Amino acid sequence: MSSLSVDHVLGIKDLTKEDLELIFKTADNFKDVLNRPIKKVPSLRDITVANLFFENSTRTRLSFELAEKRLSADVINFSAASSSVKKGETLIDTVNNILAMKVDLVVMRHPNAGAAQFLSKNVDARIVNAGDGAHEHPTQALLDTFSIREKLGKVKGVKVLIVGDILHSRVALSNIFALQKLGAEVKLCGPRTLMPKHIESLGVKVEYDLRKGLEWCDVANMLRIQLERQDIKYFPSLREYTMMYGLDLELLNSLSKKIVIMHPGPINRGVEISSDIADSEHAIILDQVENGVAIRMAVLYLLAEKIDRQ
Length: 310
Hints:
The protein has 11 helices and 9 strands. By secondary structure, the chain is α/β, with parallel strands linked by helices. The protein has 2 domains: 12-136 and 290-304, Rossmann fold, CATH 3.40.50; 138-289, Rossmann fold (3-Layer(aba) Sandwich), CATH 3.40.50. The strands form 2 sheets. Strands 7-6-5-8-9 form a 5-stranded parallel β-sheet. A 4-stranded parallel β-sheet has the order 2-1-3-4, sandwiched between helices. Helix 2 crosses helix 11 (285-304) and helix 5 (138-152) crosses helix 6 (170-181).
């Protein structure tokens, strides 16, 4: 297979196993490019990409922007905080105004679940979902799964524990879909109050004891507590959360085997993960950041191939 089965990358749920493998194969090639002295290729020359961020983001926005520039695309950056959205302009009006400038690809982050899907049905451009509410964050799941494949040489049969605020996490949902499509086993761990009801219906197991979960897994993906999405208190205090679900070097060294530690960032050091782990050889957090650029280059390149340039 040499092209994606979809016209937009809105969520992992819509992608096939073959799509994931094609994205990874393409990212392998771009990772080689990123390690060359000249890190640019002309693959997206004459393609214009608009980055629309209706929600705060540093790493994802910079990663997409760098990926676009490495591919020689023309880039427009849009921040809702300083736009006419503040004056009451609708999403479609905002995007149509941008598309009138002859934009080919739109990368969008939005606080509302389903915003990227809605946009794909109403505007004439290829859409990449850079996170919509607590729904999906497909490129994060792609880079996480790609990083596991790179570190362990495979994804099939790997046991992955996702720890933390599962209820509010778009990263958790996208990771579950991606890992399962490629044959990994997934277990979730966190407080009962932060575990969605009926989550087992997705084919995952739930573990409330962090030590038991860590003894089971090959890879632990430690999620941030998303205080900005929590409208009520889900646990007594951050200190109590850290005592129950925080990972430190003492706990890690007491396990019967070595495991790989991941984090989608930004890290709340001393809450879900201690600094001595974040900066240790157990963690592949910086590899995830590097792989994020290669994965986003691959996604943009494969979508651009579907644009009719006549």
